[in-house]
Amino acid sequence: MSISEHRHGSVRVANLIARLRSSERAHYVPEGPEGQSALIDALNEVAAAASSARTVHDVLNIVVDAAKRFTGTEKVVLALVDGTGDMPELDESSIVVRGSRMQHDESWWGAWLPDACEHVFTEGDAYFEVNEAAAAWCLAVPVRVQDHPLGILCAINSVSHRLRQEHTAFLSILGAFAAASIENARLAEESRYALLASERERISREMHDGIAQSLFSIALSLEVCKRQVMRDPAGVARQISEVQDLLAGSQGEIRRYIYDLRPAKLQELGLAGAIEYWLREIAPGKAHKVDLLVNGQVRHLGAEVETCVYRVAREATTNAVKHSQANHIRVTLTYETNGVTVEVADDGLGFEVDAATASSKAGASMGLRTIRERVETAGGEIKVLSEPERGCVVWAHIPA
Hints:
The chain has 11 helices and 10 strands.
């Protein structure tokens, strides 16, 4: 996820959380049929906010703010657990609290949490207890996905505020909402980490096949020049000129790696503009005609989809420029109702698709494998059509 995307997502989630906090009222949920309608409205609002959350931390904040607002509870605690052992144990680093610091000191309810956790996941239902010394009551409901425990959601109130059925129902349903949202956020985080690892592996492969070999050639050439500088100055001058060309090419490769790590043009120019900019960057000085055709109604597809499409177009055109010896490369970007399609076609040498995809050494085949991994990770579909001396077409559809 890019810095600007993360900032945009954080602002959006912060605004949603602010809305949840904006009108805290004691006993917000009325009794009777009106209470049931209010519960539905409240849960819909929480679901909308949680669906926009990108991290587990965002989900926890949304849930506790919703619980406090819609029940009027003086203090709400959401504590995650480590469920890897025989009995879930509280994760003290993942406890989110809402309520006045001066009211309901943590010294007593903090000691109560482990007992509540054990009861909730042993008995499988809510746990209620009155603390006479603190003149308060506590209610804990489970947060779990099927039989897998994730945490407990607790409401803490003075005994002067009676526990109502609507509160219990709301907190129980909210616990189920929280469980699904936490699990989804965790899966999203794992997916982002997997994509990051894939990016690192791809860059490592490309640097090994490109920059590393170029630097090795440069080192050998300089060693030869050092030995021949006195005997053959003219030959050394020619070799140095070749070394300069290799260095220029390596510098261009490094710039492209940096650009690929941080595709700022995607944020600045949009998807079509960023692809067009890349085509201008990769084509100068080479005997290629490279152009872009855009079909359909141009619209924003979301950062993850656009990043995937951009990288597929970039990788496919890079392969065509490096390996196809094509005279003409065309990128076609088609906006559809259910997503976007990108097609990169060239009139180059072509290849046997089965043989290329089975190979793990050739640069073009590594590029194709990288493209396929990107598209499949995004839930899309990819086709590669090619024959020797008949060019190549890389076609991919990414759902939005």
